Amino acid sequence: MAADAPGCLRLASPFLHGRILNKGHESSPKDVKSITGPKVIFRVLTRHYPLLPNRLMVGTKICPFEEWNETPRHNTLLYAHKVPTEFMGAHGFSITRHYLCLETAWRVAWSNVFPPSKTSVRTIGFNSEMDALPEIGHACGHNLIAMGGVAAALGTKHAMEKCGIEGRVVLLGTPAEDAGSGKIILIERGAYKEMDACLMMHPTPGPKLSAGTGSSLAIQPIEVEYFGHPARASGAPWEGQNSLDAAFLAYSSISALRQQMKPTHRVHGIVEGREWAPNIIPDYAKIRWLVRAPTAKEVEVFQVAAALATAYQIKLVEHPRVYDLRQNDELASEFAAVIKQYGGIVFANVSGAAGGSTDFGNVTYELPTLHPSFAIPTAENGRNHTRQFTDSAATKEAHAIEISVAKCIALTGLRVLIDGDFYARLREAFEGDDSGSL
Ligand SMILES: [Zn+2]
Known about the structure:
It is built from 13 helices and 17 strands. It is of the alpha/beta class and 438 residues long. It has two domains: 12-216 and 324-432, Aminopeptidase; 218-318, Alpha-Beta Plaits (2-Layer Sandwich), CATH 3.30.70.360. 49% of the residues are buried. 37% of the residues lie in helices and 19% in strands. Zinc ion binds at residues 140, 142, 177, 202.
């Protein structure tokens, strides 16, 4: 057992079911913040942060999911896989590369539980997203999420060692959030079953030093393919069946539908083809739609309407549905208190969905979770998914805020390990949350 460290002097042994005994009494929630010692976490993060290779910042240029085998991007992808795993390995974490047969996924873990199979001890999970957007790089700031996850897991481990907190910490490197929904695959393969709670963080624009836990939109990707018949456009157009016209008619129908849609709902898409030429009647076209609504339940109803409007369709393919974010109220309250006290950040528990979507929404249906957003300085009209945001997510200011939030994520997670009553409440909140249930 690790000796008590400065900042942890009130802590004593032994462990009891993942809790800590303090002079013979189980620690109360009030003690938790003093026991977990923000000083300890802040100290270790401050000490280790300069060691986090700056390469992490530029090296996490992971390609979209479908383009895994494209060689130049594949190389940067493997680089992004290599750097954080090696770094965490050097800090005592066990490493599983290419986790669950996903080439870009990884898992690093640390535990002081003995025997390792002991089930009465809790496991806290964190996520590091890494993927970038084609051509515009880290326009969603996933480089900050990658490093934030590393920092949170590292700080948690150090606090556990220094303060003698029993438990397990797991950090997943989760690929393809923006294209491919890698977390849905990880869920299907059981990656989150070992965790009792999971936390991650995401940068956004917003007022200086602010954070929040709004929801996100559920999303259903749909592909509609149109098959026609080619013809010489100038010689015998009457022999053709124009798939591009079919696609445009469907697109126009959906566009007309938008004026009757609720402001919380979204449908947007693009038309694609193959071997098109202006002097040939196109025999193939495809529209890739993204149908969004505040909850997974609503998106199901809504996609039916969208499908009906594309009555010309020949083939319709639905990709895995991304769910809305269900933030755990207990975790949100704890995080709000922590970030106000130790991060100097104003917290807003925003209700309703923000404009975007995330595959972490599906994780929130699996176990108690928290996905706070935090504001970084941005340029005017430079929200997520713009080149301006790529620049904003690479600044020293953004990284300083990210580390500050990572410390607070770590503090929130530590309470899950320490405080059984707190864990019972957040579990109850999870079980009772039927918003958006399918
Ligand atoms: Zn994102």
